[in-house]
Design goal:
Length: 174
């Protein structure tokens, strides 16, 4: 943690899934934040991402009260991507750019692909979208991403509405 904080000096240190940190890392985090508040210098801004409420975790003994207090109250609550599916295409474009997409612009999405991306559940949230972006970079997806560029587990319903239950509709249209 100290090495990561040193590399991020003057910038931002993002701690993803901080609630899963072991007790030793929580103690290091509390110490790092305490030292940062006592002296001036080029310290990193610390942003902690978690799907749990750290103050509740601390109150129930599953997380360090000191580390939770050092991080401070939650600054923003952002719903998971699977609850903001309309954002997936923009998040995918950002992930492609972050991976150093070689083209002047990210691929356009065919209508059926955009619909499939928005309809997909994304159980691993952002990680799923990042994996898809990495796959597209590795495969060298062309200027328009089509059906063949999607992983096999992304259902496409071809815009057909019917009264079939979701599971059967997936089997019919996949």
């Amino acid at each position: 943690l100290r090495a990561a904080a040193a590399r991020a000096a003057g910038g931002t240190l993002f701690l993803d899934g901080v609630a899963r940190a072991p007790a030793e890392a929580q103690a290091q985090l509390a110490g790092l934040l305490a030292r940062r508040s006592r002296r001036a210098g080029r310290f990193a801004r610390v942003i902690a991402g978690t799907s749990r409420h750290l103050r509740v975790e601390a109150a129930e003994g599953r997380w360090s009260r000191t580390a939770a207090a050092a991080l401070g109250p939650p600054a923003a609550a952002l719903p998971p991507l699977r609850e903001r599916r309309e954002d997936v295409p923009a998040v995918l474009a950002g992930a492609l750019r972050a991976l150093g997409w070689r083209e002047a612009r990210t691929p356009d999405l065919a209508g059926e692909v955009r619909a499939a991306l928005i309809a997909h559940h994304w159980p691993l949230n952002l990680r799923d979208v990042e994996h898809l972006a990495a796959r597209w970079v590795f495969q060298g997806v062309g200027p328009v991403a089509g059906r063949a560029d999607l992983p096999f587990d992304v259902p496409i319903h071809d815009g057909l509405d019917c009264d079939l239950p979701e599971r059967k509709r997936h089997l019919v249209f996949s």
